[in-house]
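Dear support,

Our group has been running a series of protein-ligand predictions, and this particular one with nicotinamide-adenine-dinucleotide is the one our PI (initials K.S.) wants archived with full inputs and outputs. We had some confusion internally about which version of the output was final, so please treat the block below as the authoritative record. The input we submitted was:
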Amino acid sequence: MKRKLNVAMIGHGFMGKAHSNAWRQVGHFFDLPFEPVMKVICGRNPEGVKEAARAFGWDEYVTSWEQLVRRKDIDVIDICSPGDTHLPIAVAAAEAGKVVFCEKPLANTLAESEQMLDAVRSNSIINMVCYNYRRAPAVALAKQIITEGRIGDICHYRGTYLQDWLVDPGLPRSWRLEKARAGSGALGDIVSHSVDLARHLVGEITEVTGLLKTFVTERPLPGTSTNAPVDVDDAALCLVRFESGAVGSIEGTRFASGRKNYNRFEINGSKGSVVFDLERMNELEIYVEEGPESGFKTVLVTDAKHPYVGSWWPPGHIIGYEHTFTHTVLDLLKAIDEQRDPTPNFEDGVRNQRVLDAVERSSSSREWVTV
Ligand SMILES: NC(=O)c1ccc[n+]([C@@H]2O[C@H](COP(=O)([O-])OP(=O)(O)OC[C@H]3O[C@@H](n4cnc5c(N)ncnc54)[C@H](O)[C@@H]3O)[C@@H](O)[C@H]2O)c1
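Confirmed final output from the archive:
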């Protein structure tokens, strides 16, 4: 019999659904050190959270995270609620001795993220932040190729994360468009993912110049025709310098008409390049100089020899977005078993936030800013 690990999740929207699926599936496909138990789900609205518990497969539902984090029968707190809730929940969970798994960006500000890191460190808590795209098999393969030196010394990182769901000016002002709730707009929501991939694949970012732009400055409040201000960026762009000497550009926008979830990077090294696009997530484009026959190849990353995929389907039977969360939960469980912090952890979350903070400062000052 495997040891049980009781999980409690806060929030049951988009990420609540994705994380529930991951907790439910992970033990069906991977050999785990524990049996994760989907014990309690938490939301504010009793009817909504009751239905989420039924639909997603949680044993119980509650409406107070304050009481939930103190429960003796809970081992892991999984935070899937908006950015303004991350700090109080994570700090309370750390003080109660729980493992803390938190959605990205770690917090709404750099200072808040540092408080969260202090809380997990001072209470010796295992912690992880959910930058899930590291665990797309093609991204994990790119990491292996880079680590083995196959593309040589990296010169360029080019990250773009393009969506178009805000182009309609009539779209209501949800929490994602309020600075007090979301911290920032495209910057924290999607550029943070590109920054995480840049740090993971190329290394630390030391200096940035940033530009933030809001195209639609007010929108109707949900269910009304009354407009309210939008105080976050719709688009965020930056140029970056890496510690290694590489340079990069990162662009995130929710105004790229026709682009849905175009999370792409191209990395060029002295001996080759790798290119990933989430909308073609089972593929990695690889260029390695090999003489007259060399050129970009598109590799289908679905073989048992590739990261994570051997536990799923036979070669060529592709996987999807949700698997990135399942792989993240898998690695969290392994780390808990080995009593170490997985990556990306809260320290990565803080380092990411330093870059976001520098982009904001640079956008205001119109100058290069040291991270
Ligand atoms: N890893 C990713 O790719 C990814 C993708 C989307 C969102 N996110 C992050 O996940 C988090 C949640 O985003 P989402 O898209 O799931 O949002 P959402 O609006 O779909 O869901 C938010 C949920 O949080 C609940 N909630 C809000 N305040 C609460 C409180 N005080 N107590 C309990 N529950 C509360 C809401 O009722 C809702 O169920 C954010 O930090 C966001 O940035 C990450």
